[in-house]
Amino acid sequence: MENNKKSINVVAAIIRKGQEVFATQRGYGDYKDWWEFPGGKIEEGETPEQALVREIREELSADIIVENYLTTVEYDYPEFHLTMACYWCSAFDENLVLLEHEAARWLPLWDLRQVNWLPADLLVIDAIEKTFVLQH
What we know:
Nucleoside Triphosphate Pyrophosphohydrolase; 2 helices
């Protein structure tokens, strides 16, 4: 295993409305058109929750409530190692504005795999499905 690979720590919001979660499609970069949970990098001095609130405000022009921790996924992309802490969230307003993404969808919890998710986000889907199955 290479240890000289850059590590990136990010947070992701699993924004839930009833039995659906919010998914966004990247509009830029190497993974353009792939789907992901919105979020981003934690800045120095921020807690993961503070980073999520800031990132969602920047990406979706929305205020969220960070509710419960879901999981942290570790994934090795060719360019970097990703550590992504994921939290269940809810939005104060369902009018989410796409400032950085090219598309978005509310997906039903029981059918999240209908879009082409980024590899790390697939690990989040696994955790959501386990949680969802345990609750029902």
